[in-house]
Amino acid sequence: MDKLTALPPLSLYIHFPWCIQKCPYCDFNSHEIKKGIPEEEYINALLKDLENDLPLVWGRKITTIFMGGGTPSLFSPEAMDTLLSGIRARIPVSPNAEITIEANPGTVENEYISGFKEAGINRISFGVQSFNDDILKKLGRIHNAESARQAIKKAKSAGFDRINIDLMFALPGQSLAQAKFDLESAITLSPTHISYYQLTIEPNTAFYHNPPTVPNDDASWEIFQQGKSILKDAGFDQYEVSAYATNGDQCRHNTNYWLFGDYLGIGAGAHAKITDGAQQSITRYWKHKHPKEYLSSVKKTALAGQQKLTDKELLFEFLMNGLRLNNGFAVELFCNRTGLTDDALNKQLHSMVNEDLIEWNKSHNTIAATEKGKMFLNNILERCLPD
What we know:
Blueprint: E1 10-16, E2 18-19, E3 31-32, H1 39-53, E4 62-69, H2 77-90, E5 93-103, H3 110-118, E6 123-129, H4 133-138, H5 145-157, E7 163-169, H6 176-188, E8 193-198, H7 206-209, H8 217-233, E9 237-240, E10 243-245, H9 252-258, E11 262-266, E12 271-276, E13 281-287, H10 291-297, E14 303-308, H11 311-322, E15 329-330, H12 331-338, H13 342-354, E16 358-361, E17 366-369, H14 371-375, H15 377-383
Parallel strand pairs: 1-4, 1-11, 2-3, 4-5, 5-6, 6-7, 7-8
Antiparallel strand pairs: 8-10, 9-10, 12-13, 13-14, 15-17, 16-17
Helix pairs in contact: 1-2, 2-3, 6-8
């Protein structure tokens, strides 16, 4: 590391670890509700967790907040209001901060959606995944296509003008025509953002132990290419591998991740990445994963571990994020956010430039994956793995 010249923007991620039921493809830190949610106890724990982390970020301001899970929308609007008020009382939050909540269409009623808006949440992300009821059953979702449509319409009526729809493709038994129907159904609802990503079978999931029949690689690629074309024709610009936005309405929180910004993480299993200018270091932190362990430990510290990133890890993690963006990244930004020099990039990427996997625009001093490189992004990253 050479020199960290400035601190990057700071975001806050908040994890809510409970779901009504665990989806068979999900490898996130989520737990089925057994005896109800300890709502008040968990909100208090989140605020205590934040207090414990404040020394890491003295004098800094939160620019985005993202509530993920699990299912944050299981918590009441009153709980969210208490949480956001408590956050603002403890750390400065930008007046125009993007504040996102993930919502399961099967868990939100009119009063909840309106209450979330009144609490100060200004962006909502619906985990729809598909508008095909048979496929939704295979995915273990608790909603159907009509309830998804109604939830999105309720959000519009409540005043949400920033709405994301999560859709997956290459789903069990999915045809090209069914994938097209999913996207067209989403577009008809006029969201400002669509996340469109392929189902992957992850270890430690029910699908991993009992794999469903999904489209093969060629069929999945055809579905993906069809999806890109449909979204483009509908006015959605792809700015990241799986993210599409209208009128420049990109997700600011996720963009901060992809551009190697800093973020605090509170809640069970939450992760953080913090730059320390005084120590000239970048460190990852993570919290206790199981809700019971998290709640019992947070009075002292919810911290389960931390790791100071080496130069090789910094290089890899920056590329892992930055190369996902369609426009790539500026070399100057890489240097500012990692403290490394452009020599580190040159050593790592020189051969890939010659192979037409990476484009290094010398006039603008930017780096991006080529069209060929985007097809082989995993291979590129494997070649960048730290020893």
